[in-house]
């Protein structure tokens, strides 16, 4: 399958993705449970679009994206402030590290949700995606810095930990995958790369998010439910892209 | 037999935190000024600065109340510690349900200022109050055939919100080899800083084995059983690759997911430095002999 046919089917683009309804309409009408399910979702989405979604979308069009950067970094500043003033309890280093990691993961989930929200609920939050994506990167970077500077401390142990501790290796992989996305998250890069290559590159967010979720699952002790839920949600959100891809393959 | 082990710092009898610290400072001044006896032990005593009551009672691992470090402090108040009985059974002469008050009436409570090293690479220094486990075992009369001691934590879904989740296979169980259980350093703690031990720290009585990782020191004990073979232990059951039966503090054997070479003492703030972890948590002189000839990498 040429990459471009996938591109056309998946609306991951920043602005010029095709309307998903068009794709639905060209699908052959052979009875298939998956398709019926999807049709039902599309119908539900359509009804919703008439009501609340329309109102929200109209309102969103009036709200600029830039305040999100400021709002987004406030929790980080708050966490550091708490840590410095004794508000994070007896072990502020771990608390700060975990707090920043948790925020990074939550923002990643939000970023992944934007395309499915538009497809299945008609909710258009595309214009906020770049800001949220960059906030993910800011939080992961701070998370990594806390680990480097406050937690591990000894430079000799940094490499050893990255290589020897699988959950660190996986976390580091997620971080590395996010670097090219952060660098190319501006209009100039988008123009330079062209939308097709740009979208292809930004698919790295899927392995990055899965790695982030796996990283969390690997680092907890015992059998804990929260990391399982996070990873399940991430996989589900990634899977929504996959459903479409398979149909577009079937359609040739 | 009580008083088989002495703290480095002998003046720290059962006193409230404020008095405790001022007396320590007074002591240090006295030693410096008048050259009193005990000078040689001062250096080590200085390193054993106890953590604050606040630190010790707000940063806990007690998964029966949740996996967050602050969960036990929030939720453990629901645990009913009165009345409390400890079932002592297995290979003992006098098996039965021992009421907590009856145990306390027979035991000699003393203060033990111990380092406490968690398997997660953090540590504290805690002024416990408690009695030697060997005294309690002698009360029940351990039979010659008994080679290990098994212990069990209370398992009360109504009072412990965390046991609704299968984080571990409840009830929490732990165990010691008989020589470890009988060792003078091994105590059942019933207090901290001279106050009753708070629920989040394992009220009304919990094991403290200072040369082993913290999870060996089982909390809120309801059952003690003398057995003839190595008993199952909770973390070992959950992940045998990561948690062994012995779990002696050992900077040379790393946890598969992190190094055990260093630790961070709780309470040092945002810029607390790591410090080297001591083999057997610094109690090697007292306990290393029990493991002579054993491969501590295999028996981790
Ligand atoms: C996309 C990248 C990443 C995400 C989404 C992420 C997310 C998380 C999350 C959710 C936690 C758990 C917080 C909690 O327990 O509540 C965590 C903990 C942690 N992460 Fe990351 N992380 C990422 C990258 C990294 C990197 C690059 C490193 C270091 C090289 C790292 C090191 C750690 C450490 C040391 C912990 C704390 C483990 C502990 O509790 O002892 N993470 N991270």
Rounded to the nearest angstrom, the radius of gyration of chain A is 20 Å
Helical residues, percent of chain A: over 70%
Overall helicity of chain B: 10-25%
Order of helices and strands of chain B: HHHHEEHEEHEEHEEEEHEEH
The total number of structural domains of chain A is 2
CATH homologous superfamily label of chain B: Oxidoreductase, molybdopterin-binding domain
Average pLDDT rating of chain B: 88
Q: How would you characterize the largest beta sheet of chain A? A: none
Oligomeric category:
heterodimer
Low-confidence stretches of chain B: 9-16, 18-46
* CATH-scheme architecture of chain B: Alpha-Beta Complex
Could you tell me which ligands this complex binds, including any ions or cofactors?
A: protoporphyrin IX containing FE
CATH fold node name of chain B: Sulfite Oxidase, Chain A, domain 2
How many DSSP H or I helices of chain A? 12
Mean pLDDT of chain A: 84
Distance between the first and last residues' Cα of chain B: 30 Å
What is this structure's SSE topology?
The complex is a heterodimer of chains A (252) and B (300).
Chain A: H1 3-9, H2 20-25, H3 33-62, H4 67-84, H5 92-121, H6 129-152, H7 155-164, H8 166-183, H9 187-193, H10 195-201, H11 205-219, H12 225-250
Chain B: H1 17-34, H2 42-47, H3 53-58, H4 71-75, E1 85-90, E2 96-99, H5 100-106, E3 110-117, E4 122-132, H6 133-140, E5 148-153, E6 173-177, H7 178-182, E7 187-192, E8 195-196, E9 206-208, E10 221-227, H8 234-238, E11 262-265, E12 275-276, H9 284-287
Parallel strand pairs in B: 1-10, 4-11
Antiparallel strand pairs in B: 1-2, 3-4, 4-7, 5-6, 5-10, 7-8, 7-9, 11-12
The structure holds protoporphyrin IX containing FE (HEM).
Residues 94, 97-98, 101-102, 104-105, 108, 140, 143-144, 147, 168, 171-172, 174-175, 208, 212, 215-216, 219 of chain A line the site of protoporphyrin IX containing FE (HEM).
């Amino acid at each position: 399958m040429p990459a471009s046919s996938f591109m056309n089917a998946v609306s991951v683009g920043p602005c010029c993705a095709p309307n998903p309804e068009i794709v639905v309409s060209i699908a052959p009408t052979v009875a298939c449970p998956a398709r019926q399910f999807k049709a039902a979702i599309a119908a539900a989405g359509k009804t919703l679009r008439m009501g609340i979604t329309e109102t929200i979308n109209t309102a969103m069009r009036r709200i600029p994206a830039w305040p999100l950067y400021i709002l987004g970094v406030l929790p980080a500043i708050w966490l550091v402030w708490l840590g410095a003033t004794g508000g994070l309890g007896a072990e502020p280093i771990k608390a700060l590290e975990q707090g920043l990691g948790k925020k990074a993961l939550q923002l990643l989930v939000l970023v992944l949700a934007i395309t499915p929200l538009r497809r299945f609920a008609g909710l258009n939050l595309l214009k906020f995606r770049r800001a949220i994506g960059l906030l993910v990167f800011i939080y992961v970077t701070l998370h990594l810095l806390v680990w480097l500077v406050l937690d591990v401390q000894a430079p000799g142990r940094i490499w050893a930990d990255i290589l020897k501790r699988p959950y660190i290796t996986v976390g580091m992989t997620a971080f590395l995958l996010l670097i090219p996305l952060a660098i190319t998250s501006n209009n100039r890069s988008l123009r330079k790369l062209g939308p097709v290559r740009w979208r292809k590159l930004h698919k790295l967010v899927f392995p990055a998010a899965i790695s982030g979720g796996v990283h969390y699952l690997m680092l907890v002790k015992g059998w804990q439910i929260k990391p399982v839920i996070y990873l399940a949600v991430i996989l589900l959100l990634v899977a929504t892209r996959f459903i479409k891809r398979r149909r577009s393959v079937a359609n040739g | 037999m009580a008083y088989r082990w002495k703290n480095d710092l002998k003046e720290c009898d059962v006193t409230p935190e404020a008095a405790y610290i001022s007396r320590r400072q007074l002591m240090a001044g006295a030693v410096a000024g008048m050259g009193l006896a005990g000078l040689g032990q001062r250096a080590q005593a200085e390193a054993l600065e106890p953590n604050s009551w606040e630190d010790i009672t707000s940063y806990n691992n007690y998964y029966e109340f949740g996996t967050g470090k602050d969960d036990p402090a929030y939720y453990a108040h629901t645990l009913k510690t009165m009345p409390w009985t400890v079932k002592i059974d297995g290979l003992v002469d006098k098996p039965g349900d021992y009421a907590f008050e009856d145990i306390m009436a027979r035991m000699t409570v003393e203060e033990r200022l111990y380092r406490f090293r968690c398997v997660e690479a953090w540590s504290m220094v805690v002024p416990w109050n408690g009695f030697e486990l060997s005294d309690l075992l002698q009360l029940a009369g351990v039979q010659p055939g008994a080679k290990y001691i098994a212990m069990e934590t209370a398992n009360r879904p109504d009072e412990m919100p965390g046991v609704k989740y299968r984080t571990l296979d409840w009830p929490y169980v732990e165990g010691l080899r008989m020589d470890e259980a009988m060792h003078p350093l091994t105590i059942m703690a019933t207090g901290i800083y001279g106050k009753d031990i708070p629920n989040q720290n394992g009220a009304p009585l919990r094991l403290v084995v200072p040369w082993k990782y913290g999870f060996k020191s089982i909390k809120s004990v309801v059952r003690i059983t003398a057995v003839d073979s190595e008993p199952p232990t909770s973390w070992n059951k959950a992940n045998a690759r990561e948690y062994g039966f012995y779990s002696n503090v050992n900077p040379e054997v790393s946890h598969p997911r992190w190094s055990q070479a260093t630790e961070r003492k709780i309470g040092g703030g945002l810029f607390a430095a790591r410090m080297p972890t001591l083999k057997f948590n610094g109690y090697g002189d007292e306990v290393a002999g029990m493991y002579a000839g054993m491969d501590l990498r295999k028996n981790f």
